[in-house]
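Below is our example:

___
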Amino acid sequence: MLPVATLLGAVFLVVVNLATRTADRPNDVLTPEFIAEVFGVRAHIGPHPLTGRPHIAIASPA
């Protein structure tokens, strides 16, 4: 059986992938508030320093 953290990580990646592919502006969908509400963690979202694409850093439980 997979650890809960692994399963939640997989769900998180699916949500992020869907949001970025289906939204015209993924930054409008993927907000720190949305991530906190859905996953119960604090997050920082900013541009990746090399690619400029949105980069999500998980800080701690909300």
Q: What stands out?
A: The chain has three helices and two strands.
